[in-house]
Amino acid sequence: MLNLEVLQKSFLDVSFPVLFRDFDSKLIKDDTNTPPKVYLPYVGGRYEEHRVLFYSTAQNLAGPKEKLLVNAYGKYPEQAMNRLEYKWRGDKPEKSGKDIYEFCEVGPVAGGVIPALASVFLKAKYNICIGDADQAMSYLSFGNFYKLSLFKMSPDQVRADLNPRDMGEADRQKYTKLMFDNYIKMELDVLKPKTVICFKGQCCDELKKALIEKKIAPFELLEINDTAWILRGARCLRKGGSWYQEEIPDDFKELLSTLTEKSRFRHGYLGREDAIRVYLNHYYHQFLHTNAMP
Asked: Contact 197/14 with Cβ under 8 angstroms?
């Protein structure tokens, strides 16, 4: 049985101000000049059956609409540390019910693509056919690799989100290593995943390095393209593109049709069902044939 209280204590014991002092001027903070607490992953009720962990990148909190959310995190620190289990609407956080994925503050999850991808993975790896997003999410643990939010000033002096990939090479490597050594490694030690699904880039590179150097227990690492590819209209997803031309297996057609119904998607993903269908079919093929890393 997982003991997230141990993980919470470990996170709280990290000497945060000292370790991240070089990034203090870039940290998102509330009105009391305090950054929100580093937060725990969400763990579905059936996670331990197959131990599948998904990492997104970071929570974007620089915009004016997010200011109220950042202040709410400061006002409710205990809930903020478990923020992925709450709906942050109105003045108070409300415990989420079965519709967890719709309200969490991880965009690819709330948008509906990762719940569908969870179903795709379960079908490809374990021949478990689940058309319901809430049921699929119950097999998953998810969170962000970078557990702090950063900002930069735009040329017209408006605060904007700073994605770690846009940092200078030295800063990005230092920031990523600090995050891995002080939070991600502990998270992996507690969650003991069999499979980690992660967006390609610095996060995956750090996980690969740790696996090769045997800093962490082995697991299957599956790299995927960021779901932002869907939002950007990547060429491979369009008619005639390389992914578009991949055949849909007969035993996957019905599930794929169910997973890409229009009602399932929100935010920027609504109206992009054709691209999502291509994206999910591509990764069904990938999951069928990908072997674990050594």
From this structure: no
